[in-house]
Amino acid sequence: MESWLRILFLFACLFPAFVECRIRRYNFNVKMKTTTRLCSSKPIATVNGKFPGPTIYAREGDNVLVNVVNHVKYNVSIHWHGVRQLRTGWSDGPAYITQCPIQPGQNYVYNFTITGQRGTLFWHAHILWLRATMHGAIVILPKLGVPYPFPKPDHEAVVILAEWWKSDTEAVINQAIKSGLAPNVSDAHTINGHPGAISNCPSQGGYTLSVDPGKSYMLRVINAALNEELFFKIAGHKMTMVEVDATYVKPFKTDTIIIAPGQTTNVIVKADKGSGKYMVAASPFMDAPIAVDNVTATATLHYSGTLASSVTTLTKTPPKNATTVANNFIDSLRSLNSKKYPAKVPKKVDHSLFFTVGLGVNPCSSCKQGNGSRVVASINNVTFVMPTVAILQAHFFGIKGVYTTDFPQNPPFKFNYTGTPPTNLATMSGTKVYRLPYNATVQLVLQDTGIISPENHPIHLHGFNFFAVGKRIGNFNPKKDPNNFNLINPVERNTIGVPSGGWVAIRFRADNPGVWFMHCHLEIHTTWGLKMAFLVDNGKGPNESLLPPPKDLPKC
């Protein structure tokens, strides 16, 4: 059956008059490159020697083939963040979840089709902390002849926000793991790879977006930072929101967006000032007593005809704890919910889940700096242990002893989640998944806890989009809070922020067979164990079943 499917797909691509189709081929050579930022140099892991990495362009319906060749000393895997990967979980990318990593000197071809999606996503390394410098945009254009549901902009530009450490990021996290404590924060934020001029390195250049007066520009903004949510502003200019996480939203104007690691946001900016230079700023958001990198990244919006020596118009960034600014933006997001782009929110719920997300403390005899303890993170008090064989392979081939299917539907014990924490801060450890039948509808409430500290957690679910139907501060009330859920036009995303000291409720349909990772997109929390996976069984027939693994699937 699989060979016939491939023959039919090849026929469609050879005879596009019958079926619209295109194969997009990319080569990703993973290699080290010495790079200078903040007036110091270090070797970094890159794709094709670029930081940020190359942009993948495709149209809805295209088949994408990316040959990743590993030329570095690290094991490597690449995740195509937000791509649904319908029945192609082997190409999703998280190491030891859907594949064994690509070992040094080896290669692997990621093969997936963009189905029912258009907009901005991104790709990034999904092993160790290589995501710090191995990331890039995925631009999915609508099908030929299909317009945007808003006035077409005159031009487009990718804007990737990230972090930069002067030290080797692998050394940073390894030291933190050894000590049992939190890692050092980054030394700067970047916009398209550049921090902009900062006080201790005034010669450091910044990214420049050149614009023509009167033209409109769609900025595809991506937060590829490891550990920090960011505000994004442009001096003197409003931005019109049109999309988040490759889903259209009801347009609205704003002067500030908030974007968490793993999220993407498309905005349209009208170059309506005639001339001048205007600061573009990315600054941190943190409304909990957690250390962050306070250095604002800057870039320049430069009108054509304006002298380079002209004074730049500055903008004031929000305070780092500007919760109101963040909530005003988040609460304004709504699905387009039009006839062509309906919001298919599940009304009936088959599986109602309640997951706590937060930190904990476990014993660690070797952690001298942590006084014999280690900071960990968990979902429903389970600190996830990465296996040594990929869970998807174990599931497909029936390999025993790799994982268990007893991930708890609710917290193992109840307490005042946003109040006084329990006296025992320890977590249990395990490689546990939650099993779902094909096409089941799921309501998942994600509840932050105040253990050690409340904190905003951007949670990313692989393999699915979901609808954010509710959000509040405090403890979730299962009797009262669902009465206020938005089941008409909630925003559709793949990554959602669990508010500090609060909860968010999401709904999705499990219509994608395979094993799908769910984790905090703050990389330190993922390292500490704030992660789990859903195992979705096959449905009826080949169209509802996971495809067999490719022959070049990496071996552990």
TrEMBL record:
Alphabetized UniProt keyword annotations: Apoplast, Copper, Glycoprotein, Lignin degradation, Metal-binding, Oxidoreductase, Repeat, Secreted, Signal
Cofactors, names only:
Cu cation
The UniProt record lists the EC number as 1.10.3.2
Q: Which stretch is the leader sequence?
A: 1-21
The note describing how and how many cofactors are bound reads: Binds 4 Cu cations per monomer.
Q: Which reaction does it catalyse?
A: 4 hydroquinone + O2 = 4 benzosemiquinone + 2 H2O
**Where does this polypeptide localize?**
Secreted, Extracellular space, Apoplast
Q: Which Gene3D superfamilies match?
A: Cupredoxins - blue copper proteins (2.60.40.420)
Write down the CDD domains for this protein, in alphabetical order. Answer: CuRO_1_LCC_plant (cd13849), CuRO_2_LCC_plant (cd13875), CuRO_3_LCC_plant (cd13897)
Key word Glycoprotein present in the record?
Answer: yes
Q: Which Pfam families does the protein's record reference?
A: Cu-oxidase (PF00394), Cu-oxidase_2 (PF07731), Cu-oxidase_3 (PF07732)
**Function per UniProt:** Lignin degradation and detoxification of lignin-derived products.
Q: What is this protein called?
A: Laccase
